[in-house]
Specification:
heterodimer; A: 175 residues; mainly alpha; two-stranded antiparallel sheet; 8 helices; 4 strands; 46% helix; B: 328 residues; 11 helices; 54% helix; elongated
Chain lengths: 175, 328
């Protein structure tokens, strides 16, 4: 229930409790995938970076959605090839996604439309800069090295091209 | 200074208001009016840079601010100055009537990304970014990535990537003997200066074709001595490490498999906007790929070559009898 307190008010429904970890099998690909991340270190790095660059002048207002949830959603989006809307929708209904987001327990409530809005995810993304991205990747690599799973002794370096997707044309571009 | 800034802001707002009035109700933007307004904005807004620099100096000497506040203000001012410089450059290009190149992306004020593959507008690779990756070749774990603006030369990627990996290694608490022994690359590592830089850091640069003859996967003792001597790494790197480095080498299929994995996770098409968006998308894709790689390592779903290489590196093998605890 630790993360529950950080989520929005509509996250606490009226129905019975459901332990997410008990429901998702240990062999589930999303569960195995999610268990590899050093979530505590990643979350702390994001919070430290955001607090430094976007200090909140006041403690008033609704408690924000937990960093862990948003970071996991952003990563899951790429793993499961989803759009913002799709992954936020999956978080509402898919217990494996809930597990990956660190939600341990939920209350069953049919009337709830969503847990996290896609707009919140998009806003979170704007707060991630290149330095933070490098830090997150370094923490993941460090965790893998620490567990003895990966060794940086012999490495290979290369480049590859990828397509630029946005091809909007407007008046300003034709000046 | 505050009064000056307020006065300047008022003047700029006035120009923009006039621009809005001229275009109101016309349902289109007049290019001539845009050019006139841009010229006025550039002329009137020229003191902005001076004011920002003066503010930077004052922030550093302001006694009433804490160190954190000073740092935050300094960062914000630096970012604002960089943005101003970029916008002013683009504006001048536009007001001078210089046409944008065919491959120009998004809008006129986005940072220019040089194309790496030119084509027609319906071509799938008209525009592009060129990410650099540094990976463990056995399993395909990506230790770092780089996504520079434009299309710089390949050697410029290498040192920043190595620095990033070394930063990650510094974060490792438990294992003290973690170091980069060798680095393999195709075209990037042919640069003599770059090789020298890497040798200074104690990193062997094997696997780079210097002649048309293929590199031996199992070099002779003489060849090993020659390589160590050429790199100036006698005493720093052992013959065993050279052997491993040669066995690992550079393999295009290995790199292609990494690229395929990233493309499968959405790296083929950058859907987030601008350089910042591309960095976030690429970073998240790499992290998702790494997590899948770790799962493969934990479940021994590795090629025979990878398993052998991990054995030679004395890396941990997954124990299926290990007690499973909830790590969430």
């Amino acid at each position: 229930m630790r993360l529950l307190r950080h989520l929005q008010h509509w996250f606490t429904g009226q129905g019975f409790h459901l332990a997410v970890a008990d429901f998702v099998p240990e062999t589930h690909p999303v569960r195995q995938w999610a268990d590899t991340f050093p979530w505590a270190a990643l979350g702390a790095a994001v919070e430290r970076s955001v607090a430094q660059r976007f200090p909140t002048p006041t403690a008033r207002g609704r408690v924000p959605v937990a960093t862990r949830v948003l970071l996991a959603l952003e990563l899951l989006k790429h793993e499961l090839h989803c759009s913002d809307e799709q992954i936020c929708s999956q978080l509402r209904t898919d217990l494996a996604v809930m597990y990956a987001c660190g939600i341990e327990e939920v209350r069953v409530e049919r009337s709830q439309g969503h847990f996290v809005l896609p707009e919140v995810l998009a806003q979170f993304r704007t707060r991630i800069d290149a330095a933070l991205m490098d830090e997150l990747l370094a923490l993941q690599a460090a965790a893998a090295m620490e567990q003895g799973l990966v060794s940086p002794a012999h490495l290979v370096v290369d480049t590859f091209p990828s397509e630029q997707g946005s091809q909007r044309v407007n008046d300003a571009a034709t000046l | 200074m505050k009064a000056q800034a307020q006065h300047l802001q008022r003047d700029l707002a006035k120009i923009m208001r006039r621009f809005g009035r001229q275009c109101r109700g016309q349902s289109k933007v007049f290019v001539s009016v845009v050019r006139q307004t841009e010229t006025q904005l550039l002329t009137t807004g020229s003191p902005v840079v001076g004011l920002a620099r003066a503010a930077q100096v004052q922030v550093q000497s302001a006694a009433q601010l804490t160190a954190a506040q000073r740092q935050r203000w300094a960062t914000q001012l630096t970012v604002a100055l960089a943005a101003h410089q970029q916008i002013a450059t683009q504006s001048r290009r536009l007001t001078h009537g210089k046409p944008l190149p065919q491959c120009k992306i998004v809008n006129a004020y986005d940072p220019t990304i040089a194309p790496i593959c030119k084509g027609k507008s319906n071509c799938p690779t008209q525009f592009g970014r060129k990410p650099g990756i540094i990976a463990e070749p056995a399993t395909g774990f990506l230790c770092a990535f780089a996504l520079p603006v434009g299309n710089p030369a390949d050697p410029s990627y290498v040192v920043p990537l190595v620095t990033k990996v070394q930063h990650a290694m510094a974060l490792v608490a438990g294992r003290s003997a973690v170091a980069i022994h060798s680095l393999a690359g195709e075209l990037a590592l042919n640069d003599a200066t770059l090789r020298e830089t890497l040798h200074t850091r104690g990193i062997l640069t094997v696997g780079i074709p210097q002649t048309v003859e293929p590199l031996l996967p199992a070099p002779t003792p003489e060849e090993i001595r020659r390589m160590l001597h050429a790199a100036g790494l006698h005493g720093k790197r052992t013959p065993y490490q050279v052997q491993l480095a040669c066995a690992s080498g550079y393999s295009r299929p290995v790199v292609e498999s990494l690229i395929a994995s990233l493309l499968g996770r959405g790296a083929a098409r950058i859907t987030y906007k601008g350089q910042h968006g591309a960095t976030v998308q690429m970073g998240m894709t790499v992290m998702a790929h790494n997590a899948a790689t770790v799962v493969r390592i934990q479940h021994n779903r590795l090629s025979t070559r990878a398993q052998k290489f991990r054995h030679l590196l004395r890396l941990k093998r997954h124990n299926s009898n290990e007690f499973k605890v909830v790590k969430n």
